[in-house]
Every structure is written in C-alpha cells, then in structure tokens.
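note to self — DONT lose this again. spent like an hour looking for the file last time. sequence + predicted structure for the chain T wanted, 566 res
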Amino acid sequence: MPATRVPDTTVNTEPRGNPSVLVFAGDPDEAAAAADALEDVDAAPAPISDIGPQSPVGDALQTPGDGDLAATNAAVVLDAEGLDAVRDRDRSWHVVAFVDDPAAEPATDSLIDAIATRPGDLNATLRWLAARDEAGRDRDQEALRAERDRLLALFSNVPDPAIAYDYVDGEPIVHRVNDAFEETFGYDADRVVGESVDDFIVPPTDDAESEAEELNERLQRGENVRREVTRKTVDGPRHFILHVVPIRLDAENVSGYAIYTDVTERREREAALERQNERLDEFASIVSHDLRNPLSVAEGYVTLAHETGETDYLEKATEALDRMDELVEDLLTLARQGDSVGETAPVSLGALARDAWESVDTGDAELVVDGDMTIDANPTRTRELLENVFRNSVEHGRARDSTAVSRDDENSGTEFSNHSTCSRAPPDDSAEHGRSRAGDTASRDDEHSVSECSSRSTSNRTSSGDSVDHSPVAPGDNGEHLTVRVGEAAFRGDGGASSRGFFVEDDGRGLPESDRDRVFESGFTTEENGTGLGLAITKRIADAHGWEVRALGSESGGARFEFKTP
C-alpha cells in the first residue's frame, strides 16, 4: 500500500489494553501507522506471525490471541497477508478493508464487511458499524426482555402448579413458584425458594423418596420426564402428572421447569368404573349360574304338572319361582349399593335393630339389645345391613335337621316370609321374640299383621341361603332356640388409641374359621341354594359408611360381626 496514504508517525508499541479495533497487515509499520491514524476509536496494530526479522518490532509483536479478538469490535486489514491472519478466526466482529483499489484483493474477498479508501472514510465506516452494532444490541436486549416477560407471565398464569428449579449438590432447589403452586401445596414463595422442593411435597415413604431420587438423576442427565406421581397437598395426598423439562435436553443440566397437573378426579373415576365393572362381572356370574338352577326346577315341575295333571307340582314350581324372585331382589339391592350412603344423621342403634328384626322371619329366635348407642348413619341403609346380618344368624345359626333332605326339597328351597306373620313388640323392650311361620295358628289381629308384612319390599324376604353355613352344633346345643345380641363394641389400636363401633352376635353354631375371611365375598356360600349375596350387601353398606367390618366367633361359640365406626 502506498506510503503517501498513511501519515508518517512513530510506531506505538506500548500496551493499550483491549482495543476495539485491530489493524492487520503484512508490514507491521503500516499496521501501526494505520492504527494511530484512527482518531475516533481505540485501535492497535496486530502484526501477523510471518513478519520477517527486518521488522522494527521484531519478535516483540505476536499474533493476537483469541482473547484479544474476542474483545474486538472490528478488524481492519490492509493487504492479503492481514486478511489471511483473520480468515480462520472465530469472530463476532466486522472486517473492514482499507485499500486504494476497492476492486482488488483483499477488498473483493467474501470475508470483507465494508471497504474504505481514505482515513476519513475509515473513521466514518467504523463509527457507522459501531452504531449499528449498538442499535442491534439494544434490539436484542429489548427482544430478550420481552421474551422473558412473556415466559414469566406464562409461568405465573399457568393454571397448574409450576416451579423453576436449579440443582445444587443433586437437590432440586426452588428458584421460583407460581400462584397455583402456593394454593395447591400450601407453601408461599418465601417459604420454599432456596429449599429442596422434595422436602415439602414428596410423601415420606420409601417408594416415593426412591422415585424422587430416580427422577432427579434422569433430569440432571438431560432427560425429559413425564410421569404420574403422588404428592402431599393441603387437601392430603393427590395424584399428579409431573412434566419436568430441563433447560437443555441430552446434556448435563442444573436448571429446568416442573409442572404438576392434578389427575386425582380422573383416577377416582377410573377406580369407580373398575369397581362397577367388577360388580357387573359378579352379576353376570350370579345370573348365569344361580338363576339357571331354579329356572330349570320350575320348568321341570311345570312339565310334570302338565303331563300328570297333578297340581302339587305347581306348588313346587312356585317355590322355585319365589327363589328366583328373591335372587333378583338381592341382585337389585347389591346393584344399588354405591360408594355413597347419601345423608347421614345420629340414629339409635337399638331402634334400628328392632325395626330390622321385625322385617325378618325370625321364628322363635330372640333379639337382645345390650344397652343403646348413637351412631352417625343413613337409617335406611343401616337397617338393610342389620336385616342381612339377622337373616344370616337366624337361617344358619340353628342346627340342621338330621332328617335326610330329598333332592326335590334341596332344589325348591324354603317357603318365604311373604307368607309369615309378624308381631311388633313395644319399642322400649330390650328383648324381642321372633316372628312365627305360616304354619302357626294366627288370630284375626295376626292376620292383619300378615297383610301388613306382605306389603313390604321383597328385599325383606328370607331365604335358605343368603349367607354362609355355620359349623356343626356345639355340644349341649339342642338347636331349638337362638338368641341374637346387638350392642356397643370397643376397639383398641396398635398405638393404644381406642375407637368404638357395634356388634351383632348369636349363640348358634358359629362360623367355620376357614371361611371367616371369605364370608363377605359376593357369591360365596356353603349352601347349595344360597345366593351368597346377603353378607356381600352388608359389607358394601359398611364400606359406603366408611366402617370396618369383620367376622369372628362369639364367646358362646356362635357367629359375631363387628363394625368399627369412625
């Protein structure tokens, strides 16, 4: 480049800090002179590595390092050697060619961003590039601020609980939480920011803590996690879909975002649907098996009556049809027992027991109410519960008749309570005797009671097999009299805390110990003609109240059913 274009000035080789402009040239003197000629910028020469020994600065000038270039706003090249010195550098700065001929190298190279042919033009070009960069930085910063504000608004207003976290020593430390998090989990930002989120919302169980550790390891590896989890909330444990997004995928991570979507209601609906499907399976099994037997019996007796003309066979057919009617009623009752009992109220256990006793064909059995207690219950459903337990005691607590039973009698079942009488004892009696069967002599008043009792729902009928058979008669038991007792029960927990409830027990033959865990299963019965639904209905009603029920033996050797109330 002609010497006349660059003012004659002494080369300045003193350190000038990190310059904003570096001048590259094959001749270090020209580079230094061009740098000193720039008036409006902080410039310095940057000689290239192949400068020969004839250079005035000799080996003192070295190729600028990447640190110098990183602090540079622009590079001015005077010739092809200067251009080659910056060609392979990673750079974020502009390259300006300061040449006499804008149509010659290095001005025509694609690396060049601008061209100047006079010192004044070079100063103006560098000022213009700096102003453009400043404006660009302002726009970038404004765009970043706007993007940050949008993300913050999205984070704050998302309806699901959300946190921003940073991993510190392997722990997810909360950086920010939104309003939904504070409302759902009950912790405000001041309480949890700077703390591990796992310490606040992960349930204190081995499974939950192990799951949280696994999630933390995966997130720190840069994995995107979406999983159903259980977390502690102000309303107790709830189910969430946890969606956690690290800042960088497939890389080591220390930061990210977590969103908790509550799916508890969906889980409850799925569980209810599953229970409903199980009940449908129960009904299908019972209908396909248990209804077929009495139906076949009825068809057989009708055929015999048609062939022989004897109407006695029709009575047997009627008994089989009554058996079917009873089974259908029990199925309908079981189908109506949902997971809710509706409204409850304080009620007298003794009064409910007496009402339920009068609705069951109890023969000569006796009900004894040991005192009284008040329970919070739905009266209608609790009466149904007691009726089924009373039937179980009365029908299976007595000893079997030792006389052989014919197959016809086994198939036809027992005569039902719509042909029985009922006697109503005074409400304050502590003991009530059973209702007589149809074969007993009845007065006109009793006949009126028969009409009254027969108008009740067929769900109050008795059957030969609603529940399980009991074990053989205890020694000394003549099997002719049965006492059923109802009273308050006390329960003691493992920690010494006590709770209350009630019991129903009889002094009959008791429950086989091997069957006690199965007596509440729908369809379980030891009777050939039993439905196995009575005690299943009992448990369904108890569960709907939130009660615990168990079957065991009484002190007299009979059956005892205990109900622990909240």
